Amino acid sequence: MNHDPLMPPQVERALREYRALLSAHGMTWGEPPLGYVRMMPFLRFPEEADRMSIRPDLDAEFRDALDGEVPRGLVALRLTTDGHSMEHRLEHGPARPLLSPGPVPVALLVDSALPHPVEVTADGVPYGIAAGGARLLDVTTATVLTVDGAPVDLSGLVRPAPAARLRLRAGFPCRWSVTSPGGHGWYPEGVPERRDNDDVPFFHGDDVVLAVPAEPVTIRVTRGMEYGVAETTVVPRTGEETLVGLAPQRLYDAAALGWYGADLHVHMNWAGDLVAAPAAAAAAQLGEDLHVLNLVAGNVAGERVYDREALQHWAGRDLPWSDAGHVARMGVEYRNDLFGHVHVFGVAVPPAVYHTGFGGDADWPPNAAICGDLREPRAVLGYAHPFHGPISSPGDVVGEGTRNCTGRALVVDAALGLVDGVEVLHFSDLSPEPGTAEVYRRLVGAGNRLAVLAGTDTMLSFTRQDTVSSPPGWERVYARVDGPLSAESFAEAVRRGRTFATTGPWLELTVNGLGPGERLDLDGGETVAVRARAVGAEVEHVEIRTAAGVLAEGPGPEITASLPVGDADYVVAVVRGGPHPRSPRGRAYAHTSPVYLDVRGRHVAREDDVRWCLRWLDLLDELVRARARLRTRAQLRDHLDLIEKARALYESRL
Question: InterPro entries, from UniProt (predicted)?
Fold first, then answer.
């Protein structure tokens, strides 16, 4: 779709530049080699990459993590010796059916058990392999491959197959998966060969035609978390077109109840193995029936801000494919790896600062100052992927000061009222009880009013890369909107805290009939009626929680409780469940924003939670002094002054 309005000239120029970077540098696009940049080639194999540590020789680390296994999508070239001469063999899965002659991309792991170095060449490009070393290469089945001059035959990786065609029709845009035995995926011509975190091939559209082998193929279709999955298997005839009419069944209709689901953290381009255009974002949003999409401009590890040109062109305006039920905007991810990342939805003006602390830059201005500059009357700010595992103490939050994107400054920005919410659901913490949820409840219990948010950090420029290549919206924040859906009405609902975040289950919470984000003004001594209801086959456990902990729990789908109210409090609902197609990495989870119970005008301020946040501030103060890259005493003072302002606010709540 290289035409207006999806491709304005400045965006097309930027995409051409990205393609040149990809061609010159591969999937890192020449970014500075920080840990997560160096890991990009290996994250195509998520389970194996999870077992890796980041050491200087990542290729050997990857080989060792495989422990002799060869996952789907990888070919291993084993180099051994019988004591006299070198031998090589290829290990791989079933040969890929090939419908017409042509090269097929291959991820090739060269694994040497030789006691001496060896040279592998791929189309004339030499790669030195150390004794006992390894190297991950991207080649094709047509690559001329040699080991110390001896040819390696790659022809066994593919097999000829008779061709047929499928026409897939649901009646509305969907996500399709077409596979043949061996797990090989099939795609319409020109469509990227994407795979999700569960290694399932997928593409989006409706009434699409694609070439497939004339052998059994399985077709699955779904449409985001509000739909089930429909599946069938067909054997198309050679040279003929087979029509497959298949549509997923709707499980629930959030919009009919005034609730709209968003993914507030999606990148169009962020390095990767392809360059994504706006048309890819449009296809994904409509195919997932994602009501609200926030495409964020941001850097990776250096100065370059990807999709800045798209933000400059569309800031404050809906993207061209938006309609009455779908809104897409360009937004921002401000990034500092020591203090945390913040995403912005609904921004009307591109920011002056997109990142701090990268390369030789100072960790300045503080996150609070940046958040103040990013705040606009119609924009909403949320901390992105703030915590990456279980959290039991403020020490777990602050840690040793590793630059790992942890939201260490959140305790300050929440107290100062500079952010609207927190990604309680995100790609970086998929444990049964996310650490971010624990911290979120501590912050709310300490008197901060924050909305539960969700953002997947999906990157459309990756076709296979851990969770970030899964479709947008596999985690969503739903917000209850007054009137028609728009960027402004959705942002207003988030600001008011009328939200819940979910991997799929529908979750309702009422306290005396009021829902998340609402406030009951009480005198103290009353008893309120609490109800939580969940919808979803994966729901196994429902909880009602207050600042003091679990008030009521059960298997669901609905639980109720009576809560005597003495001091100010809050109520949230939480859902947990097991594996389900809508819940990547083997768990289901949902969490509401609070219903607030104010007593005689006072907000909740549980002493234990306030002191928890004060200890966090103490540790943050120490971290700033010891680890922040600051050039002047004035820069240090700016950080410490904000910490002291937050400290005064928390102490006033005791």
Answer: Pol/histidinol_Pase-like
